[in-house]
Write a structure and sequence with these properties.
- The chain has 118 residues and is of the alpha+beta class.
- 53% of the residues lie in helices and 19% in strands.
- It contains three helices and three strands.
- The protein has a three-stranded antiparallel sheet, with no helix packed on it.
- β2 and β3 form a beta hairpin.
- The longest helix is centred in the last third of the chain and has 30 residues.
- It is elongated.
Length: 118
């Protein structure tokens, strides 16, 4: 039990960092990373992602990305806040990365137990 707590106490901060980086940089670079939160925030379970590029000057442009829940039967759109989407993404990706890291930490000795270093 002490070894489980030791692994958990090491891997939890790493998982929190991974969840935070996906929440901030991951969604900014690739907005479909936010699709994992759609079943929790939208009645249909799907987002409509739209983006617009504005040229502020000859050397500067601004891109805005808008994420909305699209409700197909009523054709209405609900706009969840960026904070809500970010927090859901943070929690979901933190849990996913923690599960993957814990599984890898337990499987690592079984995979490499008979390997000899040259």
């Amino acid at each position: 039990m002490q070894q489980v707590f030791k692994k958990f106490s090491i891997l939890l901060p790493v998982s929190i960092f991974i969840g935070f980086m996906i929440m901030t940089a991951g969604i900014a670079i690739y907005p479909p990373f936010a699709q994992i939160t759609a079943p929790f925030l939208c009645s249909t379970g799907k987002y409509a992602v739209s983006s617009a590029v504005q040229n502020v000057s000859a050397i500067e442009s601004v891109q805005t990305v808008n994420i909305q829940c699209s409700d197909a039967p009523t054709n209405s759109q609900d706009d969840p806040s960026s904070l809500t989407i970010g927090l859901y993404c943070f929690f979901i990706y933190t849990v996913i990365s923690l599960i993957i890291l814990m599984a890898c930490s337990y499987l690592w000795p079984f995979i490499f137990k008979n390997k000899k270093t040259p």
